Automatic annotation (TrEMBL), chain A:
GO-annotated molecular function: propionyl-CoA carboxylase activity
Gene3D superfamilies xref list: 2-enoyl-CoA Hydratase, Chain A, domain 1 (3.90.226.10)
CoA carboxyltransferase N-terminal domain location: 29-287
Protein name, as recorded: Propionyl-CoA carboxylase beta chain, mitochondrial
UniProtKB/TrEMBL annotation, chain B:
Domain ATP-grasp: residue ranges: 118-315
Cellular component, GO, one term: mitochondrial matrix
UniProt gene name: PCCA
Protein name: Propionyl-CoA carboxylase alpha chain, mitochondrial
InterPro entries, per database record: ATP-grasp, ATP_grasp_subdomain_1, BC-like_N, Biotin_BS, Biotin_carboxylase_complex, Biotin_carboxylation_dom, Biotin_COase_C, Biotin_lipoyl
Transmembrane segments: none
Superkingdom of origin: Eukaryota
GO terms assigned for molecular function: ATP binding; biotin binding; metal ion binding; propionyl-CoA carboxylase activity
Species whose genome carries this gene: Myripristis murdjan (pinecone soldierfish)
């Protein structure tokens, strides 16, 4: 009681409500309550106001501000606010070096009413470095997320390992990696890089399903510019080495980048709405205002008459999906294939399309890997896959062959073949050679395969084919015309049942919506195996 | 019968429609990029006459003659533009015995030459702009000439082009002064003493008379069209009749137009253009020997189908009507809807694919003549006109109200269009009162067009609508099938950003109605909130308003078209708005050292190379699009760092052309 009088501000608001005869008890109660409050208060300001200001000055929000923006108002339930690090070396045991909650905020909450587990690294506490306690907090929510079947979102902003803790920190990383791997394919995992993420730490985002970055304020690299300089003598800036632009356009490590923290978090909310909560959930269906039988007249004229002329596959996708709302994944990487999420009559679908506008829409190493990873995500989480095909084949050349196009191209083939979710394929124009087989063809268990009247399913383009079939023959032009007449149309595939129907492009949306309704109850099981052996 | 019809997509569709009514089969000609265009589908037959550039297709006479022969067409309707006023084309058709739906060659020829046509007009008793062109010796002589012409007069050196060195004199004293100055200038600058003294047309209006003449010497005038609203000598908004003409002036103009038509033995539909001054004096400008873009408004008020009349006349039938049969019924307005950016010199071409396109045909008394559809490409090769939007009403006010409605209901996505400008024009007090001249646009928008300027009330309406739309979308994103919908909060506190200003709003919802407290006012917004429809019909404080939602981003950015202009707002939760101040400012590109193409087009010329030093304002390159050349100049004096374009190349809007150091 003595202390209370000294410091009346600390008096919890519940104190006056205590019945008088409980007073003997309330003394000890209050002092605990006081400590609780103090700790909570301390946890809320992380590394202190000064560091918060510094964080803001860098154009970054604090861990808590981020969580608040990401989740529905008042929905955040925090775990482990009282956890502190256990390091006792280098003066870390001193009180001033203890921060309740340590350098990460964890818990669960809701995004548009749906459950999600979140961890948000706090850069104001030891630069967000990962201690044993920090890792333990993350593991706890991940374990629970897997148990209840809800996605995990990680907001990364960490300088790396807590060097003072040494191997304990490394163990912490490994604990997280293991959980990332066991949770993979069970619940969606999303990483949003909102600050530095270097060294071993990068492997957690790399193991998750999607990695997003914030432009100008986030970096991902194994070793920073200084080490690079000393080892390879390369001069490179942080931004060039591991900034958002590098990873979304060059390396393909990140799936998308956003302007700033707020933009990223709001977009993440939007993105989250596409995902099922776990692999036991069906693809989510949201209220839809776009008529499922809407005709899209613009599609009847979109494919140019000349088969060498390009068009934008995104025009087709935007026209067909609900409300032109398409969340593209990796829009700046391997642009010759387009992948992303959209909805059809309210139901989430994954869209894969060759992009004739870029490199004629051919398949190469990067586009195959990009497509394969996306298809496998959809398959893991029961999201139907819609494939738009306009592919002239695999990209020839030494660069591709030496790079292992055979091995990498096989990934996309593997992914489409093993997928058991509803698969609908529309051949808009070219479907040549092996690439035809790969792109979710009937032969790989496509459920509905359609051809537009402009479709050409053939082993190769007319010119090349004629040079082989009529080698040395005088009248190549005539032979070419004959080949075009015979094969540069959808009939050869249609008469064999390799496409189920030839449809008017304007009716595509209507057909897909109807098929998805039917295929919602599709059940297909691959033979039992420990796991398949995708050619990595 | 076969009719081979020609020219702009809009026009071919128009002609085909009438032909169908008359039971005439049609052949459309098209370039290869237009092969799936609407007119090609509408026609009974179609012939491709060449690749996209007009010189190789629509202006390729040989190809068109081949098309006529191969289809056995018996007549050609030339439309407007391209070959419609080409006498050689008319002659070649005549030589092959193919009927040309238009006037005879000699009429085209006579009216095709500006000087000759003026002489013919003068001889036919048509008012022409009085003037004198020659050596004037003394100031007194100049005064005498001016008095003969009648004040005000314009004085300038003959050799000076355009309005350069032009002086306007309203009395003798000013004439003397103008003479001194202009004769000096003529001698010193041009080495040519000749002066031009001409009647100055103050507050000029462009009013034209539609005429119809047959091959039997009869002719009619079908009243006037007011076409004063122009930019760069291209008409933007037209109406019929004109608010300015009284019956006597109308009759006088009509009779002179008919006199001219008769003087050149005109047959077919034609237009006589006049300039009209503030005193209702009118002067002949030129005669167009074709059917004009703005003909539908004449059709609306007279009830005649001009294409049908043209075909009848070409066939040799006499006119069906007498002058006293030609009525003025009601009022018609035409807006030319262009694929262009009105914020750049009242309209620079834009291109793209019409990703969504919906004409306001759900409204009554609305006519849309277009040749495009959803999915059409607006390319750099042709006229950027999307359509002619015509509304009709018993009174002018009715027609104008309908136009407002029609513009609000017009859905055009994928290309920039001039609806913001059109809507501002037709709702401008000066336009409504009929106080217009050919200088209307530069007079009303001296510093260029900047879109609708929001007043307190309209700003509130806009902010409230955006906030309500935001909440409707937020609520919808919680409505998952088979899941419990989270409890809705009672009140939404949001921050709506418009330009640089932030407005705090508080919103409560009851069903489909949102009550928004904004800027110390309360706005009630209700609607269906269909988030898939491009049109967003709302009732705002009891008034029906058609808004359009152009885009809605996860970041809270919403673009809505409101009162014709598109406004970008950002709706943020209160928390996000507070935290937004910490977000780093993105450093904008230094635009003075880079030159980007303001529009898609073809590079015609590049005047510099890397290493050159250019002065501020110096021409760097020329971009051409849709028959318009644009000179690109340096924004500062600097050395050229690199050149990213070469002549003949096509460039897109915003493409980097030249970098300066």
């Amino acid at each position: 009681n003595h202390e209370l009088q000294k410091n009346p501000d600390c008096c919890p608001s519940s104190a006056p409500l205590l019945p008088l005869d409980c007073r003997w008890y309330s003394v000890s109660h209050l002092s605990v309550q006081e400590r609780i409050d103090k700790k909570r208060k301390a946890a809320l300001v992380g590394g202190g106001q000064k560091r918060i200001d510094a964080q803001h000055k860098r154009g970054k929000l604090t861990a808590r501000e981020r969580v608040e923006l990401l989740l529905d108002p008042n929905s955040f339930v925090e775990y482990d606010m009282f956890v502190e690090h256990r390091c006792s070396d280098f003066g870390m045991e001193q009180d001033r070096n203890k921060f309740p909650g340590d350098s990460v905020v964890t818990g669960q909450g809701r995004i548009n009413g749906r459950l999600v587990y979140v961890f948000s690294q706090d850069f104001t506490v030891f630069g967000g470095s990962l201690s044993g306690a920090h890792a333990q907090k993350i593991c706890k929510i991940m374990d629970q997320a897997v148990m209840v079947g809800a996605p995990v979102i990680g907001l990364n902003d960490s300088g790396g390992a807590r060097i003072q803790e040494g191997v304990e920190s490394l163990a912490g990383y490994a604990d997280i990696f293991l959980r990332n791997v066991t949770a993979s394919g069970v619940v969606p995992q999303i990483s949003l890089i909102m600050g530095p993420c270097a060294g071993g730490a990068v492997y957690s985002p790399a193991l998750t399903d999607f990695t997003f970055m914030v432009k100008d304020t986030s970096y991902l690299f194994i070793t920073g510019p200084d080490v690079v300089k000393s080892v390879t003598n390369e001069d490179v800036t942080q931004e060039e080495l591991g900034g958002a632009k590098t990873h979304t356009a060059v390396s393909g490590v990140a799936h998308r980048a956003f302007e700033n923290d707020i933009d990223a978090l709001l977009n993440l909310r939007d993105f989250f709405n596409f995902l099922p909560l776990s692999n036991k959930d069906a693809s989510p269906v949201i209220e839809c205002h776009d008529p499922s039988d809407r005709l899209v007249p613009g599609l009847d004229t979109i494919v140019p008459m000349e088969s060498t002329k390009a068009y934008d596959m995104l025009d087709i996708i935007h026209g067909i999906v609900d409300e032109r709302d398409f969340f593209e994944i990796m829009p700046n990487y391997a642009k010759n294939i387009v992948v992303g999420f959209a909805r059809m009559n309210g139901r989430t679908v994954g869209i894969v399309g060759n992009q004739p506008k870029v490199a004629s829409g051919c398949l190469d190493i990067n586009s195959s890997v990009k497509g394969a990873r996306f298809v496998r995500f959809c398959d893991a989480f029961n999201i139907p896959i819609i494939t738009f095909v306009d592919v002239p084949g695999f990209l020839p050349g030494t660069a591709q062959e030496y790079g292992g196009i055979i091995r990498h191209g096989a990934k996309l083939l593997f992914a489409f073949a093993e997928a058991t979710v509803p698969k609908i394929t529309i051949i808009t124009r070219k479907a040549y050679g092996g690439a035809y087989d790969v792109m979710s063809s009937k032969h790989l268990r496509g459920d509905m395969n359609y051809a537009w009247p402009t479709a050409e399913v053939a082993v190769m383009g007319a010119k090349g084919a004629v040079q082989i079939i009529f080698r040395g023959k005088e009248n190549q032009a005539e032979a070419e015309a004959e080949y075009v007449e015979k094969f540069a149309n959808p009939f050869p595939a249609a008469v064999r049942g390799f496409v189920d129907d030839i449809i008017e492009p304007s009716t595509t949306r209507k057909r897909i919506c109807r098929d998805l309704e039917v295929l919602a109850s599709k059940k297909q099981v691959n033979p039992w195996k420990k796991h398949a052996n995708i050619p990595l | 019968d076969f009719l081979d019809c020609q020219l702009t997509r809009t026009y071919q569709c128009r002609v085909i429609k009438t032909c169908r009514k008359m039971g005439i089969q049609t052949v459309a000609v098209h370039s290869d990029v237009d092969s799936s265009a609407v007119h090609v589908k509408m026609a009974d037959e179609a012939v491709c006459v060449g690749p996209a550039p007009t010189g190789k297709s629509y202006l390729n006479m040989d190809a068109i003659m081949d098309a006529i022969r191969s289809t056995g067409a018996q007549a050609v309707h030339p439309g407007y533009g391209f070959l419609s006023e080409n006498k050689e084309f008319a002659q070649r058709l005549a030589a092959e015995g193919v009927m040309f739906v238009g006037p005879d060659t000699h009429a085209i020829q006579a009216m095709g030459d500006k000087i000759q046509s003026k002489l013919i007009a003068k001889a036919a008793g048509v008012n022409t702009i009085p003037g004198f062109d020659g050596v004037v010796k003394t100031a007194e002589e100049a005064v005498k000439i001016a008095q003969d012409i009648g004040y005000p007069v314009m004085i300038k050196a003959s050799a000076g082009g355009g309005g350069k060195g032009m002086r306007i004199a309203w009395n003798d004293e000013e004439t003397r002064e103008g003479f001194r100055f202009s004769s000096q200038e003529a001698a010193s600058s041009f080495g040519d003493d000749r002066l031009l003294i001409e009647k100055f047309i103050d507050n000029p209006r462009h009013i034209e008379i539609q005429v119809l003449a047959d091959k039997h010497g009869s002719a009619l005038w079908l009243n006037e069209r007011e076409c004063s609203i122009q930019r760069r000598n291209q008409k933007v908004v037209e109406e019929a009749p004109s608010t300015f003409l009284d019956p006597a002036t109308r009759r006088a103009m009509g009779e002179q137009a008919v006199q001219l038509a008769k003087a050149v033995q005109y047959s077919s539909a034609g237009t006589v253009e006049f300039l009209v001054d503030s005193q209702k004096n009118f002067y002949f400008l030129e005669m167009n020997t074709r059917l004009q873009v703005e003909h539908p408004i004449t059709e609306c008020i007279t009830g005649l189908d001009l294409v049908q009349q043209m075909i009848r006349i070409a066939k040799g039938y006499p006119l069906q009507h007498k002058q006293e049969d030609i009525p003025i019924n009601g009022w018609a307005i035409e807006s030319r809807v262009y694929a262009e950016d009105p914020y750049k010199s009242f309209g620079l071409p834009s291109i793209g694919r019409l990703s969504q396109y919906q004409e306001p045909l759900n409204l009554s008394n609305v006519r849309v003549d277009s040749g495009i559809q959803e999915g059409s490409d607006i390319s750099i090769y042709y006229d950027p006109m999307i359509s002619k939007l015509v509304t009709y009403g018993a009174t002018r006010a009715e027609a104008l109200a309908k136009m407002e409605d029609a513009l609000d209901n017009y859905v055009i996505r994928g290309v920039t269009h001039n609806i913001p400008l059109l809507r501002e024009i037709i709702t401008h007090p000066r336009f409504i009162s009929g106080d217009i001249t050919t200088n209307f646009l530069p007079e009303v928008y001296p510093s260029g067009f900047h879109g609708h300027q929001l007043a307190t009330d309209s700003r509130r309406e806009l902010l409230a609508s955006a906030a309500a739309l935001y909440i409707a979308a937020q609520l919808r994103s919680q409505r998952f099938l088979l899941s419990t919908i989270p409890q809705e909060r009672g009140k939404w506190e949001l921050c709506v950003e418009l330009g640089k200003d932030r407005h705090n709003v508080e919103v409560t919802r009851s069903g489909n109605t949102y009550t928004v407290e904004v800027d110390a006012g309360r706005v009630e917004v209700s609607g269906e909130w269909n988030l898939a429809s491009p049109l967003l019909p709302l009732t705002i404080n009891g008034t029906h308003r058609m808004l359009q939602c152009l885009s809605r981003e996860a970041s809270g950015e919403i673009t809505v078209q409101y009162l014709g202009t598109s406004f970008k707002v950002r709706v943020l939760s209160k928390l996000a708005a507070e935290l937004d101040s910490y977000m780093p400012e993105k450093i904008p590109e230094d635009t003075s050292s880079i030159l980007r193409s303001p529009m898609p087009g073809t590079v015609v010329a590049v005047a510099v190379k890397a290493g050159d030093t250019v002065a501020e304002g110096q021409e760097i390159c020329v971009i051409e699009a849709m028959k318009m050349q644009n000179s690109m100049t340096a924004a500062k004096t600097a050395k050229v760092k690199s050149v990213h374009c070469k002549p003949g190349e096509t460039v897109g809007e915003g493409d980097l052309l030249v970098e300066l150091e």
